[in-house]
Specification:
It contains 1 helix and 5 strands; from the N terminus they run βββαββ. It has 112 residues and is mainly β.
Length: 112
């Protein structure tokens, strides 16, 4: 199976653009960025992030990217620089006295 992310031709215009994160879902493996100047969204696939050494980006992230316009719209071809990785969630730290970790959450399903 051929990877659709690599179907650009050398003739296509690859613009270098400073982009801000609109949203990114690491579980689904994609998200969208918006340019600092412009009014379009650019698709960002997780494999493009991984090629830049990243596995996630958070709210407020700013990246410098090569973007091209494909048949389905704008798409990030390459992440050139991570200006700000944004607020990426981290694992909670253990309580020093007890060594336990307190985590909040919502139980969606439980069967005793």
């Amino acid at each position: 199976m051929q990877n659709t992310l690599d179907q650009t031709t050398p003739e296509e215009d690859l613009s270098v653009v400073k982009m801000h994160l609109k949203w990114f879902n690491g579980t689904k493996g994609f998200g969208f960025l918006v340019p600092e100047e412009g009014d379009y969204d650019a698709f960002l696939h997780i494999t493009t992030l991984q090629k830049a050494g990243l596995y996630s980006i958070g709210e407020g992230a700013v990246l410098e990217c090569r973007v091209f316009s494909g048949p389905k719209g704008h798409q990030v071809r390459e992440v050139l620089e991570v200006i700000d990785p944004g607020a990426v969630s981290t694992l909670p730290e253990a309580d020093e006295e007890s060594g336990t970790v307190t985590m909040g959450g919502l139980v969606k399903w439980y069967k005793p």
